[in-house]
Amino acid sequence: MAGTSVLPQTPLLILKEDHKELSSSLKEQEWISVIKKCKSMKELKQVHGHILKLGLFSASSFCASNLLATCALSEWCSMDYACKIFQEMDDPDSFEFNTMIRAQVKDMNPEEAIFLYIDMVEDEVMPDNFTFPALLKACAHLRALPEGMQIHGQILKFGVEVEEDVFVQNSLINMYGKCGEIRRACEVFDKMPHRTVASWSALIAGYANLGMWPDCLRVFNEMNSGGVFRAEESVLVSVLSACTHLGALDSGRSIHGHLVRNMNGLNIIVQTSLIDMYVKCGCLEKGLCLFQSMTKKNRMSYSVVITGLALHGHGHEALRVFGQMLDEGLEPDGVTYVSVLTACSHSGLTKEGIRCFERMLSEHEIKPTVQHYGCMVDLLGNAGFLDEAFELINTIPIEPNDVLWRSLLSACRAHQNVELGEVAAKNLFELKPQNPSDYLMLSNMYAKAQRWQEMAMIRTEMANKGLKQEPGSCTVEVNRKVYKFVSQDMSYPQCEGVYEMLHQMEWQLKFEGYSPDTSQVLMDVDEEEKRQRLGNHSQKLAIAFALIHTSQGSSVRIVRNVRMCSDCHTYTKFISTIYEREIVVRDRNRFHHFKDGSCSCRDYW
Asked: What is the maximum span of the chain, computed from C-alpha positions, in angstroms?
């Protein structure tokens, strides 16, 4: 066709026979419209070439700016081509620099975004409130706190207009939260004259990043107290994680209700987070119900359910779900096999665990990591095969780490093999000389064997090194508020009335035949003091508090920070019968469901 130009045969223009005549007659604003309608790099390159021929690129920075923005920020963008356009600009202004900074962050090149800002400052181009959100996001990606603080200082220099821009403030909260400086994030948040959902979300995410789960729930409750804000899915996932770690089932249920009321369908990430919350808050049945109702499941969904079944001691069911996952054509990964091996370990399925480990190697060709070997040491050690566990540690093709030796030491403590426990402890002290729990495990083994001199030596070594173990504690949720109890400590405000309740419980227990297992008090003191110390274990304090403040017949849910002792285990079985309550206890390793005088673990933990 005579006179045809390079303009593409697309809906970008109502093409006439003479494209050259048409293109030359287009005004700047019309060219900008053409640029914005480009749907591929091929179209954009053709338009770019035409603009260059007409001299509009150098004559109009506004036209060039739109070309750059479309190329850099579109879904089909090309950063390489965007950089070429940017380099062609003689004097890029703040809009062009902001575009490139945003684009580099979007393209996961946060270092380049910071270098661009340095060029911007050196070229004496004035940044504005559109510059800093993307720049702070780059610092958050890199966990670059010094650079983030420097940028914060420059924001303050630009005055109130930039400093009080809500997008800048939200970005500061996010940056400080991701960099672990939650105090500074709170300072920015507290000074904000106007807050948005994103402001609250950034603060909650900051607390979640540091594992400060009670603060996650506190801020979320403050956010909802006015009934103004509607939380986003991302922040609800963070709050669900807080509920999961705290065992705060009532709060988790409330968030589930919020999701159902306000979201049109839940994506697979939120659904999996809900399942994880329910199973780790002791409500396995609800988690399984949600899992069965999912229209689409992925590998992570299956791994969460297998882990949940493992935590609750349902090893056979976990293996059945694993088989279902394989039948659906989903390929397991290393994470899935950690869950499967843990399920076998918690349920005493030693032969099944060994077969699964062999299948992982031969059929799925997954190279074992230290986590897999740790599961195998647990599996063998829990079943009493201590020599086999020790041999495994000595023959694996990777260097044994503290996790493997700690698993062996824990098994030696459970089966009271002091000699092998000393070997495990020696290796632990060489690898992690500052971990107080390792010293305590060996000390407790000596105490149980009534080797008081060796126990005193270990305790003295701990004191000389300044090692202090966090005391045993329990949390219990009542009326959506989480209460914490520490062993031997009755000074908390919530302990009012607990002492009297403990006396009442002990009186009832005498008639049921309960006798305190004073061998669990690993101190060289008289029997009376041993009984007193047993009576003030954190789990017993938490149970007493829950019995006072919850309705008759309702379940009691407790989260421990350490493994349950055998006396608390026996004590709780009796209490479940006397008060006709189901008591669910989550310790460091697994769940125990106490009901009618028995425990779901079948005394294997």
From this structure: 109
As a whole number of angstroms, the distance between CA 404 and CA 468 comes to 23
Which residues make beta-bridge pairs with 592?
A: 585
Q: What is the pLDDT of residues 513-565, one digit of tens each?
A: 888 776 656 555 555 666 766 778 889 999 999 999 999 989 999 999 888 88
Cα angle, residue 584 at apex, residues 579 and 587 outer, rounded to 5°: 130
The SS3 call for residue 468 is: coil
Which string of b and e fits 316-327 if b means at least 16 CB within 10 Å?
ebbbebbeebee
Cβ-contact 64, 85 below 8 angstroms: yes
β-pairing, 583-586 vs 556-560, is parallel
Asked if 583 and 558 count as a contact pair (C-beta separation under 8 A), the reply is: yes
pLDDT the model gives residue 527: 59
Encode burial over 437-473: b for 16+ CB neighbours within 10 A, e otherwise.
Answer: ebbbbbbbbbbeeeeeebbeebbeebeeeebeeeebb
Whole-angstrom Cα distance, residue 115 to residue 101? Answer: 9
Say if residues 171 and 163 touch (Cβ distance below 8 Å).
no
- Are 322 and 306 in contact, with CB atoms under 8 Å apart? yes
d(C-alpha 246, C-alpha 166), whole Å = 32
Q: What pTM did the predictor assign?
A: 0.74
Identity of the residue numbered 274 = L
Reading across the β-sheet that carries 583-586, which strands appear in turn? 481-486, 473-478, 556-560, 583-586, 591-595, 598-599
pLDDT for 102-152, tens place per residue? 999 998 899 999 999 999 999 989 888 899 999 999 999 999 999 999 999
CA distance 449 to 441: 12
485, 545 contact by CB (below 8 A): yes
